[in-house]
């Protein structure tokens, strides 16, 4: 992926890797349809190529590189997923990936020794496309030597776990299994309504036979199915695939019950509960049931990643734009946690992530209204000046659309702004007061309520 500007890309190991797309906020784009899940994330890493000579430039974009070869990429973040290893240069907005099918071996190297007590911790990757690559860990943003060893071990464990599971083959196995089902092969020869009816009948029959045999059906059904080895193989495969899910459900149930009993008693073992919760989250991630990273897996990058996730979430389907460019922290907290599902964040994590948005240049930032103290997330494109002009135009149009001067005095209220901009009444009131303080509106307080009108003096000045 090319950098955000039009400068030539540097010729280095990172830019020679497989192309990886980034979201507008800088997060890697996971292959959700293939069930890809991010399991580890570490910062302050290096990518080295120690072979003889430079790596060849990618053929599709060989003209976009510089002429100078750099054998080391520094200040990278290393992301381990179930399908690949992704290295990201956040400053240049470029990323490259190493798919697991191209990794022959992954071994831990380096660490302290008698001659080198402060030797760096590394992961040596023997790849089929780029030869030997080294990922060096520098201990995150704080650079502690002890942390670099923990980061290396955590990343290496996640890589070995992903290589053992081979999640990238799940889609192919599922597609082959679905294609081999009788409901697919028979209905392939039919078209129209006949094909739909036949397929539904076969699906119902297959599911009924599978359930009856697996959970103890009548003798007639059992004898009939026992004569067909194909159905029995499907049943065995079904039970094998259901076993991990049943274990997860049983583990989840027992953990919840244990936590309830511990909460009822005074002598609870908090450390044991935390360990069980971590095991449960790891089991869910291994099965691809969650893609949200925990603080333990993200390390020092947790709140930065969280800030980018929140921005992408609010940018998706223009959630923030449709809400008038501003949302209260309560609304964002509820909507974002509902989207994350099993791995919810705390209010403190949300506040820390919002504090980083401005420094990261994500186009959103936290704002506090002085009059009421309400905290909101605001799109940088929807500043006070833009919103004040919009409210002034809305107030002017209300004056033009009035039918009878006696019956309708015009002006806008908090409810009018709330309905028009589709924002809460609390935010509508804050926006109106801000526009009034800036001189774009003036208000009229009566026994019927408060109405805001365009400031004619401001309009005359602007003219």
TrEMBL record:
InterPro entries reported for this sequence: Snf8/Vps36, Vps36, WH-like_DNA-bd_sf, WH_DNA-bd_sf
Gene Ontology MF term list: phosphatidylinositol-3-phosphate binding; ubiquitin binding
Subcellular location: Cytoplasm; Endosome
UniProt main location, coarse: cytoplasm
GO biological process: protein transport to vacuole involved in ubiquitin-dependent protein catabolic process via the multivesicular body sorting pathway
Gene Ontology CC: ESCRT II complex; late endosome membrane
SUPFAM superfamilies noted in UniProt: Winged helix' DNA-binding domain
Record key words, sorted: Cytoplasm, Endosome, Protein transport, Transport
Sequence similarity: Belongs to the VPS36 family.
Subunit structure, interactors included: Component of the endosomal sorting complex required for transport II (ESCRT-II).
Function according to Swiss-Prot or TrEMBL: Component of the ESCRT-II complex (endosomal sorting complex required for transport II), which is required for multivesicular body (MVB) formation and sorting of endosomal cargo proteins into MVBs.
UniProt protein name: Vacuolar protein-sorting-associated protein 36
Organism for this UniProt entry: Skeletonema marinoi
């Amino acid at each position: 992926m090319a950098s955000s500007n039009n400068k030539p890309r540097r010729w280095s190991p990172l830019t020679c890797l497989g192309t990886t797309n980034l979201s507008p906020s800088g997060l890697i784009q996971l292959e959700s349809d293939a069930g890809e899940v991010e399991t580890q994330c570490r910062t302050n890493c290096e990518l080295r190529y120690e072979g003889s000579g430079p790596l060849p430039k990618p053929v599709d974009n060989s003209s976009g590189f510089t002429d100078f070869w750099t054998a080391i990429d520094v200040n990278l973040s290393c992301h381990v997923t179930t399908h690949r290893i992704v290295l990201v240069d956040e400053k240049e907005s470029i990323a490259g990936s190493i798919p697991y099918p191209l990794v022959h071996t992954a071994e831990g190297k380096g660490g302290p020794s008698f001659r080198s007590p402060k030797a760096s911790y590394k992961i040596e990757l023997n790849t089929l496309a780029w030869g030997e690559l080294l990922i060096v860990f520098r201990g995150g943003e704080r650079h502690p030597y002890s942390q670099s060893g923990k980061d290396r071990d955590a990343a290496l464990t996640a890589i070995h776990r992903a290589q053992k599971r081979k999640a990238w083959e799940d889609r192919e196995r599922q597609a082959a299994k679905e294609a081999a089902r009788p409901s697919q092969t028979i209905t392939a020869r039919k078209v129209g309504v006949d094909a739909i009816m036949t397929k539904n009948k076969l699906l119902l029959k297959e599911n009924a036979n599978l359930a009856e045999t697996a959970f103890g059906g009548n003798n007639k059904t059992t004898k009939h199915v026992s004569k067909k080895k194909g159905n029995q193989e499907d049943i065995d495969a079904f039970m094998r695939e259901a076993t991990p899910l049943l274990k997860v459900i049983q583990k989840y149930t027992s953990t919840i019950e244990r936590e309830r009993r511990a909460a009822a008693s005074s002598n609870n073992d908090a450390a044991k509960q935390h360990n069980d919760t971590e095991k449960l989250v790891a089991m869910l991630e291994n099965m691809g049931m969650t893609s949200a990273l925990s603080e333990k897996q993200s390390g020092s990058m947790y709140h930065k990643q969280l800030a980018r996730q929140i921005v992408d979430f609010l940018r998706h389907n223009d959630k923030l734009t449709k809400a008038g460019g501003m949302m209260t922290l309560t609304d964002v907290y509820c909507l974002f946690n509902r989207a994350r599902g099993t791995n919810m964040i705390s209010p403190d994590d949300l506040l820390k992530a919002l504090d980083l948005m401005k420094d990261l240049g994500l186009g959103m930032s936290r704002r506090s209204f002085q009059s009421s103290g309400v905290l909101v997330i605001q799109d940088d494109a929807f500043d006070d000046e833009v919103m004040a002009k919009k409210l002034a135009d809305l107030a002017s149009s209300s004056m033009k659309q009035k039918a009878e001067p006696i019956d309708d005095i015009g002006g806008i209220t908090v409810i009018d702004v709330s309905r028009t901009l589709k924002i809460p009444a609390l935010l509508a009131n804050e926006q109106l007061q801000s526009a009034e303080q800036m001189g774009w509106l003036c208000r009229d307080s009566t026994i019927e309520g408060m109405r805001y009108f365009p400031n004619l003096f401001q309009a005359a000045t602007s003219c």
